[in-house]
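Hi everyone, sorry if this is the wrong subforum. Our group has a chain we'd like a structural model of before ordering constructs, and none of us has done structure prediction before. Sequence below.
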Amino acid sequence: MKHTADLFKSLADETRLKILWLLINREELCVCDIMKTLNITQSKASRHLRYLYHLGWVSDRREGLWMYYRLSVPQGSYAAKLLQMLAAEMATRTEARNLLERLESWLHTKGQMNLQGKPTCICDVAVETT
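Answer:
Right subforum, don't worry. Here is the predicted structure as tokens:
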């Protein structure tokens, strides 16, 4: 019962809902992609991602200095059904569609920066300046 309550509790936070929405629509995202899209700090993004990780919503993967996250709920599970309901609800929301547009814009800019040999994301800039 506690795990079910914790799953619902995790959905009661707007930032975590937005993160899940972004991951529903993208296979995998770097922490910096979430930071830039949601206009939040690295510590806030990481805190919410860790929360989602510990409940089994997401898994992570390290590539060098960067952490990437993806959804990790098993098909047919109760959590997968909750994600389906979340996706259906968020798809009707203008704010949610705007988040996806912001994400796509950022990913395009990031790709252009990469082609020009510039730092490709906030993570790169942070590493360069230290």
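For your construct planning: Residues 125-130 have pLDDT under 50 and may be disordered. The CA atoms of residues 6 and 12 lie 10 Å apart.
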